[in-house]
Write a structure and sequence with these properties.
This protein is mainly beta. The protein contains one helix and twelve strands. The protein has a five-stranded antiparallel sheet, with no helix packed on it. It has a five-stranded antiparallel sheet with strand order 8-7-10-5-12. A two-stranded antiparallel ribbon has the order 2-3. β2 and β3 form a beta hairpin. The protein is globular.
Length: 136
Amino acid sequence: MKPRAEIVQFPVHGDSRGSLIALECGGDIPFEVRRVYYIYGTRSDMPRGFHAHKHLKQMLIAVSGSVTVSCEFGATKERFLLDSPSRGLLLEGLIWREMHDFSPDCVLMVFASEHYREEDYIRDYQVFKQENLSWI
């Protein structure tokens, strides 16, 4: 699977009572969801992530607050600011990811295509760099 990191805009439905976002697998989230988790209560000076996945696809959404996600794949390095529940970051393929600058109220929800499997992780940056060479 070719690496891909891109912002996805979700349709917002709302009126004077507030807003609603409905996400559907195969549409807004372009894969079947097998696991959902969220990260919260993270100190702004405490980065997270520092890994890549071999096969897992993810959609990251800051449902509250904000966080910056740094991604590296092939010769590409990009930073994405997630600061609205109406946008998500789609990650597919071998992408090194780091999350920084969590706001105090950040709740980062992640939809994942697979159940947790430790063997899908690459946690050593040098191993990632070796694997990553095939995409340059």
